[in-house]
Amino acid sequence: MKNLLRSLAAGALALTGLLTVVAAPATAATTKSKTVTCYRLHHNKVQSKKVTNAKGTCPVGWSTHKPKPKPVAVGSLQGTNKSGDIDLVVSGSSSLAINGSSFDAPMVGATTSGSTAYSAGGKVSFSSYPAAGSGTGRTSITNGSVDIGFSDQPMTPGAGTLPAGVNESNYVQVPYILGGAVVGYNLGGSLDNLKLTSNELAKIFDGQITQWSNLAIINTNGGVSSPIGKALLALYTSNAPSDNIKVIYRNASSGTTYAFTDYLHSSGGSSHSPSGNVMEGSGNAWHAPNILGAANNAAMATDINSNPGAIGYVEYSYLLIPGNAAIQTASLQDRVGAWLRPSLTNIAAAGAAAGSNINPDNFSIVNEGGKNVWPLATYSWAIVPKNETNAAKGEAVVKYLDWATHYAQSAYAKAEGYVPLPAAVAAYARQQLLLVTSGGNVLLTMSS
């Protein structure tokens, strides 16, 4: 009997063990998997994904703790157009209205339209650019009709460029491009490379020299026996209509006019103070008798090309536009008396000679000292409100301008006929853009 009980007990124990072994897989099959959200920083952007496994663990390099993007220091990646450049990221979509200097138009076109335009991933677009002139750029930004106003001179009381009733301190003004103007004329191939002194130019635009055969111009170009001197005399002896100088002037407020009259005043002995006001026409102090008004740099180039005997002043980059290559350009003298043909090299020399202390109260770089320095160079400026009421639009404005005054300088400036901004001037532009705020927030350092 005892043996029977022992056998039954052993059988029960064996059966219990067998059941335990058989049941084990079923228990494992019903273990619940865990799903977690895993995060990582990739190119300073937070990435996330759902992960499901038995332990609820993240893959190597990922964590259940959501990281914060690392602050990007202004001056490291910003303005480089590389991954991580916060100039390329804006918080909302914006369409920006722009107008102003025709001097700037080629660079503005390259950076706001077509495949090379700034877009911040498709969130930023721009209006067309009428290039109505620097005066329009200043009045349009101060009356609120544009988001960026472009002007070859900043708005300052000293320069006479501040619109009436406007407080300069309410605006930020940044150097946008560095370029030069040229004196263009139309006298035919035998009179290429004409030399003109700044004094002769001042007298031409003020009506004291009215013919190309004037003896002062002949003497500047080698005298009556020189090839150019003979060609100029031939205009007189043949009574050629082109001997009568036709002065092309800008018939609206113009930054190129300001730079030109600044040059004539500082170098050519002109009694007229530097001004962007209309040089010729009814009620103005300049007295050239044979004149034609042009609306902007593009119209100036066209009018020089189409009027024999014409003379005018036009931004260097317009010589690169197809159809304008035929414009003859005068050689001008630097401050040591050397005759120069216009080039990006000697325009850059003007920027270098002017140094880094460029600001709204010290903006003129005409007639700078040194050899091989183009005497008719100028910066042009972008003007924006210091306090932006629309944060998204303000962020787009300052990030476009930071991108344009850094990356776009190396990428597009030379191809468009400008000199890239010197490093110190680009750094000054960024310092000014850091002053633009909305609701107390600095817009240039915002990241999304």
CATH class of the largest domain: Alpha Beta
Number of domains: 3
What structural class should be given to the helix and strand makeup? alpha/beta
Query: Sheet with the most strands?
Result: 8 strands, mixed
Order of helices and strands: HEEEEHEHEEHHHEHEHEEEEHEHHHEE
What characteristic shape results from the CA principal axes? elongated
Strands, total number? 16
Helical coverage, percent range: 25-40%
Radius of gyration: 34 Å
From the 3D structure, determine the CATH topology of the largest domain: D-Maltodextrin-Binding Protein, domain 2
Beta-strand content estimate:
15-25%
Find the CATH superfamily of the largest domain.
Answer: Periplasmic binding protein-like II
Q: Can you give the mean pLDDT?
A: 91
Unreliable spans? 4-10, 12-24
CATH architecture of the largest domain: 3-Layer(aba) Sandwich
Distance between the termini: 86 Å
**Helical segment count:** 12
Give a brief description.
This protein is α/β, with parallel strands linked by helices and 448 residues long. It has three domains: 33-70, no CATH class; 86-179 and 380-442, D-Maltodextrin-Binding Protein, domain 2, CATH 3.40.190; 181-354, D-Maltodextrin-Binding Protein, domain 2, CATH 3.40.190.10.
Structure commentary:
This protein is an alpha/beta fold. The chain folds into 3 domains: 38 residues, no CATH class; 157 residues, Periplasmic binding protein-like II (D-Maltodextrin-Binding Protein, domain 2), CATH 3.40.190; 174 residues, Periplasmic binding protein-like II (D-Maltodextrin-Binding Protein, domain 2). It contains 12 helices and 16 strands. Strands 4, 6, 7, 8, 9, 10, 11 and 14 form an 8-stranded mixed beta sheet that branches. It has a two-stranded antiparallel ribbon with strand order 1-2. Helix 4 packs across helix 7. It starts with a helix and ends in a 6-residue tail after the last strand.
